[in-house]
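Work Package 3 (structural annotation) set out to generate three-dimensional models for the target panel prioritized at the project kickoff. During this period the team completed the workflow that converts sequence records into discrete structure tokens, so that structures can be stored uniformly alongside our sequence database. As a representative example, we reproduce one entry of 127 residues exactly as it appears in the project archive.
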Amino acid sequence: MEKKKITSYEDLDVYQKLCELHLEICELTYTFPKHELYELGSQIRRSSNSGPANLAEGWSNKHINIYLEGINRALSEIRETKHHLYIAFRKGYLTKQKYIAYKDRYEEVRRMLMGLETSLVNSIGKK
């Protein structure tokens, strides 16, 4: 199987998955009660968008440590989004099944980011 050439952060599967999750999270939050639209809804929309944004921001920086920092910030935003999803579940705004599905998908992108981080760290050692 031929490897896909990565020329932009947009080519990264993890970036695409994070963007898809963000769009789905936005739709989910519009089903929250009106009083949560600018409280929990706004927080979860921002954190779910910050993951892919931080990945894009750090992309192809001349200093790999800055890219690694972008990955680290993206991981932090994933943890924050998972927290907000948990609170939304506890408040009854999404079903347990939906909560677990989102949690599992965020765990998948977390692992992907950790793999990207490992790959970058290993590339530093090869120089």
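The chain has one domain: 15-125.
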